[in-house]
Design brief:
Blueprint: E1 3-9, H1 14-19, H2 21-32, E2 45-51, E3 60-67, H3 70-74, H4 76-91, E4 95-102, E5 107-109, E6 115-117, H5 123-139
Helix pairs in contact: 2-4
């Protein structure tokens, strides 16, 4: 599951950025999505930091750490550009994005005992939800 380290510069409106975190998660999920692994915002973990603008390349910077997949590897610059472009348009800020890929293992356990792993076991549920959304949109 991708983890985003989002650094907000002191020249940006932090409250506005924080209000748009779920939109940023949606953008990152779309940018990191692949046939190997379907993602939605609930797969994107976010960590927030602040820094002086003078030490940054953009008013907001996004460092994405994600599992290595070949499709991601060959399209990483295109994906980073798409994410930067959409976040920049969303917030009206300069945005720089890095995609770091590595071999990772992942597991999350809920207090009720459910376990989730880095394998794509929950892709079917995401596909069902996307199909529902497409049907709702097509009726409009």
């Amino acid at each position: 599951m991708p983890t985003c380290y989002i650094t907000i510069s002191d020249s940006a409106n932090k409250n506005r950025v924080m209000d748009k975190i779920n939109d940023i998660r949606d953008i990152v999920a779309e940018g990191m999505d692949s046939k190997s692994r379907l993602l939605d915002r609930n797969h994107i973990a976010v960590r927030i930091a602040e820094a002086p603008r003078q030490f940054m390349l953009g008013e907001i910077e996004i460092d994405i750490f994600a599992q290595f997949f070949w499709r991601r590897h060959f399209s990483r610059d295109k994906r980073a550009n798409m994410i930067s472009t959409k976040v920049s348009l969303l917030l009206g800020l300069d945005c720089a994005t890095w995609i770091n890929m590595c071999k990772v293992g992942y597991s999350r356990v809920t207090k009720s005992g459910e376990s989730f792993f880095s394998i794509k076991a929950d892709d079917k549920a995401i596909r069902r939800e996307r199909n529902k959304q497409k049907k709702r949109i097509s009726k409009i």
